[in-house]
Amino acid sequence: MVLALAMATPVSAQGARSKVYISVDLEGIAGVVANSQTSAGGLNYDWARRLMLAETNAAIEGAFAGGATEVLVNDSHGSQTNLRADEIDRRAMLITGQPKPLGMAQGLDSSFTAAVYIGYHAPGSTADAVHGHTFNNALNTVKLNGTEVGEYGLNAMVAGYFGVPVVFVSGDKAAVDMAQAFTGADGLSVKEGIGYYAAKTMHPLEAREKISAGVRAALVKRIARRPVTLTTPITLEIELAALYHADMAALVPGVERVSGRVVRYTGTNALTVYKVSRLIMNLARD
Ligand SMILES: [Zn+2]
Predict the structure, then answer these.
(1) pLDDT band for position 222 (50/70/90)?
(2) Degrees (nearest 5) of the Cα angle 204, 209, 214?
(3) To which CATH superfamily is domain 17-224 assigned?
């Protein structure tokens, strides 16, 4: 610890408050590949949520070691009650439950200095992506200004709206590669997808150590980061899996039908664009 602290100056040493936001998903956690792990009630769900909790606590540890004075964790998977409030590192605050207006980006605002994404996965059309999807399987693809993005991209757009850089992303290799390219964040691949339900995974203990060290290192050099800023007007294009979901999406004011399954929204406010994506996702539920 002493050795590590001597290597770089944590953010708190600059005397400023540093609020770190951590959004945690489940599919990109080391050791998680199966539906029985990601679905509440699944045979291995309780085990998987413990893995998720441990990576979350590792990230919190890294954030405080990197100079955070406050940490807010947002449970961002499924029921969004995966993380048990009494098992989270007590120094952090937790957003739990759903629905919440901004979903995986809930709680973020311009008072934060950095955002961290843990356990993230790639979009659905990506090869070798473990549990690839964006929000749910009703959305085939989501594009921002013509670039396909996963949840990392939409959430990073919200962080960018608030002027907050994404500094660290962990998840499967496909997710981390894409998220790094989009956000410029540091990344840690904790597993490599072999298929939708299979991966070569890092040992969870190893992943936790690396997440903790990675978050700390990312915060120490945070000043060099830039928030994601998209050129305006921002074009959101969503291809839905079902035509009848595209019918519903096309009812949203401002949304145009591009083709049978594809709808488009164009706007200058990144937060509004995000809300429209959330609305379309929610309309595309059976
Ligand atoms: Zn997700």
Answers:
(1) low
(2) 120
(3) Dipeptide transport protein (3.40.50.10780)
